[in-house]
Amino acid sequence: MRVGQTVQPLSYELRLPDAVQAAALRLLDASREVINATVAALWERLDDFGERETKYAYKQVTALIGSSDPHGDRQWRCEAEQAGRILRGQARRKQHFSQILPLLEQGMILPKGERARAGKNRTAIKAALACLRDEHSDGGSAVELQSLIEQACNFYLSLGCFPETYEDMQAVPLLKVGILPYAADDGGLAGQAYRFRMDVQGRCCYLAFRSPDEQGVWKASWTEPQIRLPLPDPVVQRLQAGERLAPTLREVAEPDGTRYAVLDLNIEVPAAPLPDPQQVQRVLGWDWGVRTLVTATVLDLSGNRLSPPLFLDTGGFDGRQAHTRRHIDRLKSKVANLKARRDQFAVGDKRREPSERKLVILRREIARCWRKYEARNNDLAHLAANMLILLAGVWGADLIAGESLKSMKSDGRGRGAKGRWVHWRNNSQIRGALWKCLRYKCHLSGLHLAWQHASGTTHTCPHCGKPANTYACPALDAPVRDAGAWLRCFACGWNGARDYAAAINIALLGVASLVQDMAHTVQRNPPKRPTMITKNLNSESYTGSGLALRLPPTPLRGCLERGKLFVNGWSKSVTLHSALSQETMLRLCG
Ligand SMILES: [Zn+2]
Q1: Beta-carbon neighbour count of residue 489 at 10 Å?
Q2: 502 C-alpha vs ligand 1 centroid, how far in Å?
Q3: Residue 100 φ/ψ, nearest 5 degrees
Q4: Residues β-bridged to residue 573
Q5: C-alpha distances out from residue 540 to 30, 43, 301, 391, Å
Q6: Which of 173, 220, 342, 526 has the highest CB neighbour count under 10 A?
């Protein structure tokens, strides 16, 4: 790897074989106790962890304290590393707390009414967060600040006053599931807490570790024979390109009580260098859709639209997710009924047993459904991120512009969909997952990624920049709807899908901030990011010219074709709509 080259950390989870699961869990349990004792002992010195002289957290810990249950230097070093990471994270949170402390005020709490319970005033919290809005962050720290404000409000709701210090409201954070990072500087063979060897050619790795036995006595010897873990293809590819970091042993605890140990392989792969901002010629803008997951389009720096609208439609995905959630609800009510039946009998009564047996099966089924639900969300996030990067590549866009996570613009969207789970795509899980995927994938692909203020992007004409309404449908006499699917500007006559308008507007903001950055590279205080009100650029026309060199001609607009794309993990497909032919879409996706 070249000096100065940026890298992207990636992590892959390998489940340990059943034969060593019990030993690995005993090791994790023993380590967890030491880690928790260490964090508790150092909690009063939290501020010390706000500053770091070394990248290794364990050095900071071992300088202050020794192990509560020593089993070799290297084992303690691993435990100290984890304790140090927790304390460093908490120290950072405490620093953020000092930012929100002056903003805490009673207006954030809604007093108890005649009917309503006391609660949080979301509007006041949002306003306070807006004050803190960091112009150049993607919302990651905004999420953190919000969680701190919420935690402070919960403190108020239970105790009647705001916390004065961070430690007032934050209990000592103890690990509930085991995690043991193998300390980073031990090297593959030297570590005495574990032995680890990677055989990339043989597509496998070997692990041995020490652990306490069933009686809690630490064994002097290693797990024998060495555990052989096969490496999946993507991991082998990453290993060939990247640099291996020390792995982490981790416990996975499922809601039904099942526990198992995994080894996280950590790899640092080189990221593609970012193009010079001066060289960026095209910007891909995308937005969360009302009826589609994502809508994207590509602009040049003059605001000309080069691509047709591209919609990523999730097809039957919503329905399948809703089905799974309903199934989970049904299982939960069965669990409640069974518990009631079981509790008719005293503890120790044999008649409890049939219910107990069924409960185990039901809980396992609930855990399985949750896994399926989350895996689908993650697959979708990966698919959407891959599609955006692919489209940026096809149209030669070096900057991807999207709506900031913290804008919360998508609150209350999804009207028209049925049922209780219509907001699934607005929930922070899927949005957060997509941002996370997009961030590291852009980093790996050498694409600029920029977050835009979303305010006004769905209710501004992309052609003339004047405020515009959205309507229930394209008909001229359609009623105005705040979440309507069609945007029509009566000032200039432009009309189109609202999601498309929003994607153009977000791309325009991306272009405006790029142009602005280029003009202000030497200024010490960067100018404020453009908003829909301050940007001085509109989208003049649709040219389609960007397509000419890279893709076959598109069919007439309005004649939408569908391409089917199969995604690993779920056998059903996602449908992509665009003005490109099916053949082209399949080529793009394959
Ligand atoms: Zn207009």
Answers
A1: 20
A2: 13
A3: -85, -20
A4: 566
A5: 65, 59, 11, 22
A6: 342
